[in-house]
Structures are given as structure tokens and as C-alpha cells.
Amino acid sequence: MSESLFSKKNRKLITDPLTDNNPVTIQVLGICSALAITVQVNQAIVMGLSVIFVTMMGNVVISMLRNLIPSRIRIIVQLVVVAALVIVVDQVLAAYLPDLSAKLSVFVGLIITNCIIMGRLEAFAMANKPWPSLLDGFGNGLGYAGLLVLVAVFRELFGSGTLLGFTIFGNSLPGEESGLYAMGYTNNNMMILPPMALIIVGVIIWVQRIRNKELQEDH
Amino acid sequence: MAINKESNGFTFGFAITLVVVVGTVLALLAMGLKPMREQNAKVKKQLDILSAMLDLDKEGINRKNAAKEFEKYINLDEALVLDMNGNVKEGVNAFDVDIQTEYKDKKLKDSDKNYPLFVANQDGKKLYIIPIVGKGLWGPIWGNICLDEDMSSIKGASFGHKGETPGLGAEIQQKFFIDRWIGEKISDDNGDFTKFEIVKDGSGMNPQKVDGITGGTITSKGVEEMANRCLSVYAAYFKSLKTKE
Prior knowledge:
The structure holds two protein chains of two kinds. Chain A has helices at residues 8-15, 31-36, 41-65, 74-96, 98-104, 106-109, 115-123, 130-160, 194-211, and strands at residues 162-163, 166-167. By secondary structure, chain A is mainly alpha-helical. Chain A is globular, with a radius of gyration of 19 Å. Chain B is built from six helices and eight strands. By secondary structure, chain B is of the alpha+beta class. The mean pLDDT of chain B is 86. Chain B is elongated, with a radius of gyration of 23 Å. The termini of chain B are far apart. The chains are: A mainly alpha, B alpha+beta. The A-B interface holds A 39-40, 68-73, 76-77, 80-81, 84, 87-88, 91-92, 94-96, 98, 102, 105, 159-160, 173-175, 187, 189, 192-193 and B 5-6, 10-11, 14-15, 18-19, 22, 25-26, 29-30, 33, 36-37, 40-41, 44, 63, 162-163, 165-168, 174-176, 215.
């Protein structure tokens, strides 16, 4: 019982979802929002932080209630908790980060439907104590956020030539090109369209499975 | 006494308690944050109006100093509201008119819609700022057009959108697109409204023609429709002012 807070087992709860059990690349959950809000890195970061908050808090609340929740309505109870947390995030963003909140628009609300969150509640928090649940929520949220930011880096860099809004390749405005653009480089408009996010996620999955043969499925 | 967790009574009790608790927490949060959200919306509107006449980045105007800068340039006592025929409407506060909601409201008759007009003072010149609203490819688009003291030439503009495609339709916000509008006139020498046309053939240098955005055709057309529909109302008002003189 007297297990240390950051025992090896507990640390694995955080590190696993970052690598070999990543919710997006291995379990292929939460793809929808990964397509929608990875055009710019700052959007991806705020979205990632929001999801981390919701998975962590959702896991803790459900874990604390796990011995009380009647099993017949447990999915609805989980939904109510997640929905409440998402509304909290939405309201706080609208109050403190109004510009970003406007850009993320409906996608914050759609965190409710993100399978990662319900999946962790059902698979982990319902059967574990609050502290490991918190770590598990944090790890999975971080695994999602990390991938989102990675995809967003590719899309913003090659689609708009910027990172976090700062120009990287020079000025692309017609008539005042500088840097790479002066040499004839153009942004890849495909990058800012949703299909490209799917292709980038696919490439990441591919690379990850080449590096780790255990992840390859036999068919 | 052990509680039977699976009994109907417990299930109902649990559900009701949970919903009441969650509902209370969310209601308190929403009420607590409401003043901030309203303040944000007000500041956004001030910034939008100012962005038509000034380069906000260059002037260092942001959310923090928006209210002060707004007061410096714009006197809300001079602002007025027009009806669709360009006649002044009394008793309506121009700043409180939400043209986006009115535009979306299908039940609201065109004749009941409000057309606010803001008057700005810059370097001793009177400028006229006109908020406009329309629809793009994916959702609403809007803008503010700043007219010079001749009440006809476009001195500055800003456009915004909710969810146009980044890199394509969303480019209406960019300076290069706004620059294409500057110098265009909304009325001819008689004060009659002159229509704008978004063109694809690069003839945007001609009067009343504005080059569209490659790949953003529907958004560009949306800007055209929005500018023509809204600005014609104001042209009628300015004409009535000029004929009075």
C-alpha cells in the first residue's frame, strides 16, 4: 500500500501514453480534433492544455466517485462530468483568452466527444485510485497534446511559413517577398487543409512502427 | 446499513444529486465570468472599429489600451444609426447595435435592421467608419470600412471572418487584400452609389474593381456582396447630406 507517489509503475502511467501507447498514433483516438485545430501551433497548444486539464480532472473525479456510481448509469455520469469540465474550460478561455477562444470555436466544446477522455474514464479511472488516475489522465492528455503540437509544427511551418506566428522563411506577401520566398519558394496550401493532417498523422504512425517492431500488427 | 448501489432509488438519487451539483457549479462560474466576457466583446468591437482607420499593430493598440484609444478617436455622441433607406433612426445607440446578430436573424425584416455609422476624428479630419457583415464560404464574415472626409473614398478597411479556409478565404484579413480596396469610391460625382466588383482577371486597378483572392473565390464574392449591400445604404445617407448642403 505504501507505494511512493512516483514509483516505477506510476511513472509508466505518464510515459507509456507518450510513446508506445500513444492515444492518437497507437489507439487512433481523437483523430477528428487532430485534423481540425492543427493548422497553427498556438491553437494546438491551447487545445492540448485543455484536453490535459479535462482528462486529469475527469479521471480524478470519476476515480473518487467510482465506488458510488451505479453501474447502470456510469456512462452518463462520466459524460456529465466531462461535459461540465469542458464547459469550465470553454468559459475560462472565453474570459481570459478571447482571441484564441474565437479561433478554437466549436472544437473546445467537441472535447466532450473526444474518445480519449471517455476511454480513460471507463478503462482506468473506474478501477483505480485518484492519484494513479490523475497520472494516467495527465499522461494521456500529454500524449494527445504532444502529437497535436507535432502535427501543427509541420502544418504551420510548411503551410504558412511561420511557427507560433513568427515568420520563419521570410515575408511571403505578394510584392514584398524576402528570404526563401524571394527565391521562388511557395507555401504548400495542401498543408492547411484537413486531409494533410491525416497524412502527417499517418506518416508519424508509420515512422513509429518502423522504429518499434513490436507495434507492428501481423496480418 | 449497507446501501444497495444498484437499487432504483439510489440510481435516481445519485443522478439527481450529480446534476444539481454540476448545474450549480456551472451556473456560478458562468455568472462569475459574465462581466469579463461582456467586457471582451466590447473591447473587440472597439478594436474592430479602430482597425478600419489605423494599423493596430503599428500604433501599438491592443486589448489593454483599446478603450482609451477608442475614446481618443471616436466620439460616440456623433455616431448614428440608419435604416435600410439611409434615413437616420432616432433612439438607437450605434455602439449597441449588433449587426451580426441582426444579419443572421431571419425573422427580422430588412426594414427593421439597423445600420450604425461611426464618426472618427483624426488630424482634424472627419472620417466615417461603417461596419459591414455578410457571409463567406463557411460562416460569417464582417468588416469595417473607413471613408475619407469626402464621404466616398475608402481610406482604410479591415475584414474578419469566423472560419474561412486558412491561406485561401481567410486571406481577406491580410493587408494585401485590404490595400486593394483603398482609394475606391462608394459613390459617383452625383453621390449615387457605385457597385463594386471582385474580378479574377487582374483588372483590379480599374475603378470599382477589386482583385479577388486566388482559391478564395466564394469568400471574395462574399466580401463583394457584403460591401455592395451595406455600403449602398450609407451612400444614400451621404447623398441626402450633400443635397441638403
